[in-house]
Design brief:
With about 160 residues, the chain is an alpha/beta fold. The protein has a single domain, classed as Rossmann fold (3-Layer(aba) Sandwich), CATH 3.40.50.2300. The chain is about 45% helix and about 15% strand. The protein is built from six helices and four strands; from the N terminus they run H-E-H-E-H-H-E-H-E-H. A four-stranded parallel β-sheet has the order 2-1-3-4. The chain is globular. The two termini are about 20 Å apart.
């Protein structure tokens, strides 16, 4: 597809959705949050997915914290990063959102750029339900800020 002017070509390029995979250990919290935010905030440019090295159930505190801001993760299902790898899935970016995933995540085929964002695991939060929920809210907001920065940087290029 060619375009008559540089401005049109830029629009065609920007409208192409790039695939982004967020990876953490269990795909139960951080990667699910990042996927939801990127699809919501950057859905014009990106198609985000998430997966884990050892998939488990979605963290109920994450479901609760996301519901507070209008995002329903109650039906989210944890997926295996190795299943995606074996299928030969290709991504523009693979973003690890915890230190262990950064060390153990497979290299995906193609030209995926690897990025690492280190976030605390909500499964490790101590305290009462309300204290753990407050820490999960803070984590949610940190991930949202990082995703917003990622989208802004992409738009600037």
């Amino acid at each position: 597809m060619t375009s008559a002017s540089h401005g049109q070509r830029e629009t065609v390029t920007k409208d192409f959705k790039r695939r982004v995979l967020f990876v953490c250990i269990h795909n139960a919290a951080r990667s699910q949050i990042a996927e939801a935010f990127l699809n919501g905030l950057g859905g014009r440019y990106f198609a985000a997915e998430s997966a884990g090295l050892e998939p488990t159930e979605i963290n109920p505190l994450v479901v609760e914290a996301m519901r507070e801001i209008g995002i329903d993760l109650s039906g989210a299902v944890a997926r295996s990063v190795f299943d995606l790898f074996k299928k030969g899935e290709k991504y523009s970016w693979v973003v690890t959102v915890c230190d262990e995933a950064n060390q153990r995540c497979p290299l995906f085929p193609g030209h995926a750029r690897r990025i690492h964002w280190s976030f605390e695991d909500p499964a490790s939060f101590d305290g009462s339900h309300e204290e753990k929920l407050e820490k999960t809210r803070k984590l949610r907001d940190e991930i949202k800020s990082k995703v917003e920065e990622f989208v802004r940087e992409f738009e600037a290029t």
